[in-house]
């Protein structure tokens, strides 16, 4: 095994720093065990705080304006008129069970300037959730907003789901020009998709000359047909002509590939981005193994399909599991290389790229990563009333060690542990879920292989319990009086959040006591710490380092440490 040379790690530059953000998985009704639609979102940012934003349903007076502040920098951008009514929004799901997620890919350098005064991607999501009742309406809202006010972000992939449909929507700004170019495609029933900071839509069906007879695909000029159920693809009318005008495409319209023109694939685009989609796909579809060469960046022409049909129906708990991955079982397995240290920790501190003896190397960028602010699994269920049917399974910090707690989309009060203003990235709060979960995960990174099984045990027990609680809530909600339903939703979400916090605080304390100072206290069959007959703690376990690690120490300092 090669000697560790951490001291030589240096920043590679833009090649990998462009690929540090989020991961989404999308599942159509036909792909899930219970017939729900599901999207996931991991908001991975070294500066984003894990909390649950809330916007109450509101009636607005004529002339009332909405001030928009950039999602990342919080700088003021523009103000836009409010509609007569906006919907209740809990995080990234609204009262009509419309949910939206995203990942950023930037795209062509020629367009990175963007329209500084337009609507950024974060506000595009939030405003759409406040004004739309389903995916199709959200696409129409986003198109009208960017056409009128401009788009102030670079390339983005959005995931949209409602109780009936799931869509992937990809957009990029037009530089100094107003508006944006984009394509949106509906997932076929029974299929799943995913995106992770790399554009994924390649070729797409173009509308026929007589759009009234064939609604499979329409351009934004014919947005009036957006609600026709036969429409499965929508795109901006200039998505191809804009590329031609700038000299980026010269082929036939039918061969136009959105991702290849606006976000050409690179080694880092495959290895640090699409590899995460591959990691999810391979776990539910055995035939995906053939794309490992692409995921590793060795064969960029062997692109994965936009969507696949899984080998089995997937339930919500398996979706949570799919959001927990360090490439286990692949050559990129982050628990197996020397960088994992003696305790197989699957995390690498930044930068992601480094050089040794003039050669460039990478640390893997997995789905589960230490800098996640929050993540969710949004589940939409058409057999239930909207306020009860939509569930935002919400978690903070690293997806591998978080707990997904169910928040019903119809709640009007956010549990205090997730509430805005309860702590921040620069202010610790003992009552904030973000800080509690970070306490546990960061402690686990010290002796990962011994600690993480204890976290996973509590995580699995809690999430299984919550799934049962949601099923019970479905019955209770249906049997309750209409006047009591809102209170029931609020109380149920709040109680489950408090239960999660209580269990995690107990876990936090248990880990500290059990693993303090690198020792491992012994426990009896009931989980109690062993003591002597006189009450003194039993002498702890002190497992040795693995032999390969000792060999590294000897190779490095053996002449100093050898017993003479």
Short description:
29% of the residues lie in helices and 18% in strands. The chain has helices spanning 14-17, 121-131, 135-149, 241-245, 258-262, 267-284, 292-295, 316-322, 386-389, 433-444, 448-479, 482-515, 547-561, and strands at residues 24-27, 37-44, 54-55, 58-59, 65-69, 76-81, 85-86, 89-90, 93-94, 99-106, 155-161, 166-173, 180-186, 192-195, 217-219, 233-235, 307-308, 353-356, 359-362, 372-380, 391-396, 405-408. It is globular and about 85 Å long.
Secondary-structure topology with pairs:
Blueprint: H1 14-17, E1 24-27, E2 37-44, E3 54-55, E4 58-59, E5 65-69, E6 76-81, E7 85-86, E8 89-90, E9 93-94, E10 99-106, H2 121-131, H3 135-149, E11 155-161, E12 166-173, E13 180-186, E14 192-195, E15 217-219, E16 233-235, H4 241-245, H5 258-262, H6 267-284, H7 292-295, E17 307-308, H8 316-322, E18 353-356, E19 359-362, E20 372-380, H9 386-389, E21 391-396, E22 405-408, H10 433-444, H11 448-479, H12 482-515, H13 547-561
Parallel strand pairs: 15-16
Antiparallel strand pairs: 1-2, 1-14, 2-20, 3-8, 4-7, 5-6, 8-9, 10-11, 11-12, 12-13, 13-16, 14-17, 18-19, 20-21, 21-22
Helix pairs in contact: 2-3, 10-12, 11-12
């Amino acid at each position: 095994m090669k000697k560790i040379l951490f001291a030589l790690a240096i920043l590679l530059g833009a090649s990998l720093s462009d690929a540090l953000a989020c991961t989404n998985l999308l599942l159509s009704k036909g792909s899930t065990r219970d017939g729900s639609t599901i999207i996931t979102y991991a908001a991975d940012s070294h500066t984003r705080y894990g909390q649950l934003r809330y916007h109450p349903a509101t009636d607005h007076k004529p002339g009332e304006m909405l001030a928009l502040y950039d999602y990342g920098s919080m700088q003021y951008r523009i103000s836009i008129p409010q509609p007569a009514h906006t919907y209740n929004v809990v995080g990234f799901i609204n009262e009509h069970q419309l949910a939206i997620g995203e990942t950023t890919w930037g795209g062509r350098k020629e367009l990175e300037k963007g329209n500084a005064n337009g609507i950024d991607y974060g506000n595009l999501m939030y405003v759409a959730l406040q004004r739309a009742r389903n995916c199709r309406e959200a696409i129409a809202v986003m198109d009208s907003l960017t056409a009128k006010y401009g788009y102030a972000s670079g390339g983005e992939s959005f995931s949209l789901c409602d109780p009936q449909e799931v869509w992937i929507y990809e957009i990029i700004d037009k530089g100094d020009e107003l508006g944006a170019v984009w394509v949106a495609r509906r997932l076929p029933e029974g299929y799943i998709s995913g995106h992770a900071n790399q554009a994924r839509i390649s070729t797409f069906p173009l509308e026929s000359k007589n759009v009234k007879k064939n609604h499979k695909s329409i351009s934004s000029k014919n947005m009036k047909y957006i609600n026709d159920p036969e429409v499965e693809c929508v795109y901006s009318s200039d998505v191809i002509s804009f590329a031609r005008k700038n000299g980026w495409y010269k082929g036939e319209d039918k061969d136009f590939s959105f991702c290849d023109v606006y976000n050409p694939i690179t080694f880092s685009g495959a290895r640090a981005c699409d590899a995460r989609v591959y990691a999810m796909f391979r776990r539910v579809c055995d035939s995906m193994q053939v794309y490992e060469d692409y995921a590793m960046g060795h064969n960029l022409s062997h692109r994965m399909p936009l969507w696949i049909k899984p080998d089995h129906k997937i339930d919500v708990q398996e979706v949570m599991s799919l959001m927990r991955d360090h490439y286990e079982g692949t050559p990129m397995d982050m628990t197996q290389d020397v960088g994992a240290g003696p305790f197989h920790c699957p995390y690498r501190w930044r930068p992601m790229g480094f050089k040794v003896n003039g050669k460039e190397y990478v640390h893997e960028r997995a789905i589960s990563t230490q800098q996640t602010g929050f993540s969710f699994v949004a589940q939409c269920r058409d057999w239930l009333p909207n306020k009860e049917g939509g569930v935002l399974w919400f978690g903070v910090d690293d997806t591998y060690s978080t707990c997904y707690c169910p928040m019903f989309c119809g709640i009007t009060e956010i549990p205090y542990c997730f509430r805005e203003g309860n702590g921040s990235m620069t202010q610790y709060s003992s009552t904030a879920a973000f800080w509690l979960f970070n306490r546990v995960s960061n402690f686990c990174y010290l002796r990962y292989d011994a600690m993480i099984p204890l976290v996973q045990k509590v995580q699995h027990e809690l999430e299984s319990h919550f799934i049962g609680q949601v099923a019970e809530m479905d019955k209770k909600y249906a049997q309750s009086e209409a006047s009591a339903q809102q209170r029931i939703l609020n109380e149920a979400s709040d109680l489950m959040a408090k239960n999660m916090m209580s269990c995690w605080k107990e876990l936090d304390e248990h880990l500290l006591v059990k693993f303090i100072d690198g020792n491992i206290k012994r426990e009896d069959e009931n989980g109690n710490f062993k003591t002597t007959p006189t009450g003194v703690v039993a002498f702890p376990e002190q497992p040795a380092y693995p032999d390969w690690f000792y060999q590294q120490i000897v190779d490095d300092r053996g002449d100093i440490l050898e017993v003479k």
